[in-house]
User: Fold these one by one.
Assistant:
Number 1:
Amino acid sequence: MRPKIKPRRRGLRITVWSLVTVLVMTVGLTGVVLWQNSYDIDEQRVTIRHGGHTLHGVLALPRDGRKRHGLVVYVHGDGPTDATHDGGYQPMWEANAKAGYASLSWDKPGVGGAPGNWLEQSMDDRAEEAAAAIAWARARTDIDGDRIGLWGASQAGWVLPKIAAKTPVRFVIAVSPAINWLRQGRYNLLAQLRADGATAARTRAEITRSDTVRRLLKHRASFDEYVRTMGGDADGMTPGRWGFISRNYTADATEDLRALRGIPVLLALAGHDINVDTADTERVYRETLDPGRALTVKRYPDAAHSLVKQSIERSDLATTMTALFSPRSLFADGYLDEQRRFLSGLDHGAHARD
């Protein structure tokens, strides 16, 4: 006759097996996260000298055995962005690598210990910075200087054509680029108010506030004058941010875009963009660049401004979990493949010569 297990021993066994199960699940989930966040690229930390400063960058190289590669130079949008955009660039770098292209990006000045302050830059300053990075890349033996192009998102729309006017580029990938700073700001304000379900009274008040800010900018008001005019309420504005806006609010890419004529351009636009008026962007790009027939426009109906799926972006939890367990799935369906195909189609002959 089989002896009965004492309740105490049975409870101990349950506890032990519960701990083992949790441990196995933890190890398994950790393995999935590590696997999903491993990319088929070799990343190198690099330093680039520019204007007496050092840019802290990352060069992501394909693992394809070729001695030389084309290069995609990344131009950030707004905000304090590091070289990898907190890892958000890496799925794109992997897509570039599949097409035989390396990727280069760097911390904005003042980010991650880099010298300087990005809020003190103009769009021309940013273009000079990128041109210096391209010159650095052209001096490398593992980069094909004739196959260097640009990728830029949002605010980079004012920087990309300025770079092309300073140094030859082979192609441009423009993601949700804005055309005119003031038009973009007004569009964003109204789109956000609609998304918030704002009342007519609140909408009128916000437009009045926006008009006041525009007048202050036009008259080159100081930050202190801005705060006084707003009744002492800075509403999150800082002296540095006010200086950045004052320096750049007249930005307009319309005329600068002529520098991209004849250059292959992939224009990627989101279907749920409350930051940039994509219809206005597409109209200006087509009017300016179509004479050269080098413009490709791709729309992603399920995407938000950053080309992350809108269904994911509107939930912080969904964004975090997807970034951990399936980071390539963050982006709109087809976007990574389209970027790879665009690069692959540029010059098959150049690949064959490597």
Number 2:
Amino acid sequence: MTRPLIIGLTGSIGMGKSTVADMFERAGVPVFDADAEVRRMQGPGGELLSAIEAAFPGSTGPDGVKREALGAIVFSDKDKLKQLEAIVHPAVASKRMEFMIEHGGAPMVVFDIPLLFEGGGQSQVDTVVVVSAPPEVQRKRVLARHGMTEEKFADILNLQMPDSEKRDLADHVIDTGTTLAETESAVRALVEKLKKIREASS
């Protein structure tokens, strides 16, 4: 295998995926965060602003995309959502390609993709890591977020594949219902395991 092993990292809201992504980075594995790229490209001076404004007038301003205004336009209209995705997805794919070129010599890389299974992204990675925690831990974390309500939480869960199904589809599961030290130890053990698998197949 001449290119890096591609790890797809995913998990439902409140499961600790961002924390685990940071742990992969601390273990020396480069991480591509698709959501962070989108936020940057839609932020102040972002390269997607002109295309989004042209398609959805009034949805951007000096601070970038007006998330609530754009959300109100696209989330109730599937055609408009597809129109937005046609602007965003190719740009993210381009950034991902740049990332792969930059880190082409690394043994492995992580693609941090929140809706990996929901979007069929598992076909684009070599192995899938699902971040999971008990439902009560997830609930406590999410409801502690600013502006979160029971209703919003329920709506988000309805859009996401159930955690149990993600675990069944995963190649590896990282449990974040334990201490941070235990979770980080599990991540580092997985990195070493995957390195050995990659070495054996190359």
Number 3:
Amino acid sequence: MTTADDAVDHPRAAGAGRALLPMLTLGNSALYLVYLGVGGVLLPAQIELLDPDGKVGSLGLVSGIAAVFATLFNPLAGLLSDRSGRRNPWILGGGLASFGALALLGQVRTILLVTLVWCLVQATMNCFQAAITAVVPDRVPAERRGVASAMVGIGTPIGSVVGILLAARFVPDSLATGYLLIGAVMALAAVLFTALVREERPTKTEPVPLRRQLAAFAETLKVADFRWAFIGRFLMMLGFFAVSLFQFYILQDHIRLPDGMDAPGAQTYLAPVDAVSTLAATVLGGWLSDRLGRRKPLIAVSCVLASATMAVPVLMPTWTGILLYTVLAGIAFGCYMAVDTALVTQVLPSAADAARDLGVLNIANAGPQILAPLVASAVVSLAGYDALYLAGALIILGGALAVVPIRGVR
């Protein structure tokens, strides 16, 4: 596998033409179109139709099991694409397979089958995601990676907003059509990417034994600063996902919406509000941390703000309250991600193995998605949605404390 610094000399870097950056935005947009449009709207609506009384527990179980598949398949697919020396076949195969899996998901009629097929969707999506994530270090020269990362990042709010707006149009009467359409967009993005962004076959290299790669992953977490950054990211994501994965049901059962507005309709308003506030805070937070030369205080402030924001829907379970919560949470999360990402790049254990170490950090993004649905469904079932916000606030505060022991970054 190439290192971050020598990618410019790698044969695959020859494929980095004018189409690469916009295609990276399109590819990442398609990812979040599925993750938010399906995971945030269509899947909860489908589970509610199949199990209206036990929907909270069922969504937690389905999401938790599927997140295990996501966590396992992402590094596995990355390893296999590394060994094959190609990215495009995995991008194309993952995108087309996702279309088939999503089409099938729209047809199943039991919670068991929903669980199995959603796991299949996660597996296919992570084949796509692992390969397209590796494209930047593979094909983009080091001096242009900041721009490339920004183009990737832009895809997240675009895909999230479009996915939620699109999916909401098919709830509750045309879920199968919604799955089919979102799957078709995913497949089209994969076809366009591989058609317009070509890659050359690399020269054969000796693959690193799997045992050595696993040992290297374990060694990474022995570095104290990186370990604390990992813990902080894990806690922030756990608190965030515990609440956000249940937003559909929170809007249905906890928030007093205006007359004539339902949960899908509310999501279509909240999605662009969240995207704008997150984007603005991401830009401002990154700029401010560079300007001040400080990362840890801004991360701590972001976590404290995110934690305090959890009180808003508890004290104001109204449409005004959830709008205010969405703005403040977007600001906190956007600033956190921008500054924490910068901090992580400064505490990587090995500059020559940046891709590997960032892969370890990705566990802190994916792991909470396994735990969050299970923790959240248990909390809601036992104590209700107010307790869920309280639990999320306490977990996120732990993320603020985790940056304190980091010594290598101010």
Number 4:
Amino acid sequence: MPDPSPALSPYDAIVLVSFGGPEGPDDVLPFLRRVTAGRGIPDERLAEVGEHYALFGGVSPINAQNRSLIAAIEAELAIRGMPTRIAWGNRNFDPLLADTFTELATAGHRRLLVLTTSAYSCYSSCRQYRENLADAVAAAREATGVTLEVDKVRPYALTPGFGAGNVAAVRDAVLEARSGSAATPALLYVTHSIPTAMDATSGPGDGEGHLYSRQHLWVAEAVTEQVAGELGLPDLHGELVFCSRSGPPQQPWLEPDVNDRIEELAAEGVDTVVLAPIGFVSDHMEVVYDLDTEARATCERVGVRLVRAATVGTHPRFVGGLVDLLLERAAQARGEAPAPAAWTGEDVRPSVCAPGCCPNLRTARPALCGQD
């Protein structure tokens, strides 16, 4: 793998890091075992979850979408005169992050810049990736004797590229909804639910917490305001709902569930709902099953028309924004102080996480790219 463009120095490799997903029926159970390792979940329960994947031939769309995103980032870098190959490593399925880091170390790379496919701030969206980075560096060191140096770009939910991609998606979906109804549709912004304790501790250890939910609310408010203005719909209002709850019943998770809210809206006389999956970068399983399958079934049962907005995917503004973040982090590593791109005027996350940020509430583990 050749070194990146000099504009990305001092880094000699760029790595996209994602969650990963099965690519065939035989992969589903091993994948779910890896995702839930250490939680004592029996195979019988994992097999029930695996039925979601069976609806799609045992294939999660996430890996194919990551390949498309990598190609789009490489194309954007080439357009800017910075031809660069992007490496790829997953937390839970091939190509595994530890293997990717080991291959890079063997090939002579020493300083890596990581871009994750998670835009928000909480333990599972940020710190857990940082723990995975520490594990992968340790694995590469054991295999090769080389200690890699790793940095990552900051969480990017509140950056212009992510915002522009979501504005375009929601605008198109609202227009489609309006084509079949004179009424302004109900607009539900959807993200992955997490335990309320994880949300309460998201953000710096000395802050007010709840950064995960606050970031989503900021994005939802900003998207709604811009779309309402562009379309001349002052009565367009959005609200935040959640999907993919997976914890035990006695553990509080963020609510309301998207299906519960759809049922409530139907009872209130709403006939059209737009679902905007702002919590996700691409149409992976939480989107194609939880929204396109399960929530759609709920809408059909209660007589509500569903229009689903796209994820940012490979929207040109989103991809361009990711390249901007790579360049921003490289400039910081060179000792420069570039002005961070911000979209909503709200909290700009640092590239190096503050002490106590988004802690692991189960057990203390080493994590890279932070001050603790």
